[in-house]
Write the structure tokens for this entry.
Amino acid sequence: MSRDLAVRVLNACRAAELKLATAESCTGGLIAAALTDIAGSSDVVEGGVVSYSVAVKRKVLGVSAQTLDDFGVVSEEVAQEMAEGAWSHLGADLGVATTGVAGPGPSGDDPEGRVCFAVSGPVYTRTETVDFGAIGREAVRAQATAHALHMLLDTVEQLAR
């Protein structure tokens, strides 16, 4: 399913003449991999950052210390700043970001399976949180990747109208 979805995202971006960038924490590059597994994706995908640590979120993507302190790493606010950093630093039209807890087990107050998402561009931002539950690390990451691709597709289709 992710391959078909990735093809749809890439085709929609081509039709809308949009470039993408990724900023991934809990998905560890799976969104970028799903997109770049498709031959010819380089005309849409500018690049991506796997920002597993807080330091990389801050230094590379520009997530503010204040946002991290106020909302925590697993938050829509951090996901939004990650997505903004991705598109602005990598020269894309849209950035997609994930931050969450793949598991096993919770992380602080955040339960296993909670993932925060953002899709952002210069004139558009959408954030969401999904609790996938304690379905296992691999399943959380796969579900989060598919959800992010769906968000991208929905966004590109809305922007193209």
